[in-house]
Amino acid sequence: MGFGFILVKFSLFLKQIALLNTKQQLVHYQKEYSGVTGLVLVAAGIVILLLSYLNYRKTRKRIIENVFVGNNSLILVVTVLIMSISIFLIGYLFSSL
């Protein structure tokens, strides 16, 4: 979520700089993907936060009932989600070089 927030703020910062320098030629051309990517990262952070909370509640209930069994499926889903976002970001950063 933090990295997504930084991307969105940096995107807004670049737009403000571009508006201030309207008489000069723009040195940095931005593809509008920074803001969208930042919002996707923030949304992914919110989803992971929600899934973590739900998993915590279920685990706490199982511990109280003495029937705890680990939840490998949630760990797999979150790992795949984070890896997918990381691969997307690597591709995005390489394309903008």
TrEMBL record:
<keyword id="KW-1133">Transmembrane helix</keyword>
<dbReference type="Pfam" id="PF02656">
    <property type="entry name" value="DUF202"/>
</dbReference>
<keyword id="KW-0812">Transmembrane</keyword>
<feature type="transmembrane region" description="Helical">
    <location>
        <begin position="36"/>
        <end position="54"/>
    </location>
</feature>
<protein>
    <submittedName>
        <fullName>DUF202 domain-containing protein</fullName>
    </submittedName>
</protein>
<dbReference type="GO" id="GO:0012505">
    <property type="term" value="C:endomembrane system"/>
</dbReference>
<feature type="domain" description="DUF202">
    <location>
        <begin position="1"/>
        <end position="61"/>
    </location>
</feature>
<feature type="transmembrane region" description="Helical">
    <location>
        <begin position="74"/>
        <end position="94"/>
    </location>
</feature>
<dbReference type="InterPro" id="IPR003807">
    <property type="entry name" value="DUF202"/>
</dbReference>
<keyword id="KW-0472">Membrane</keyword>
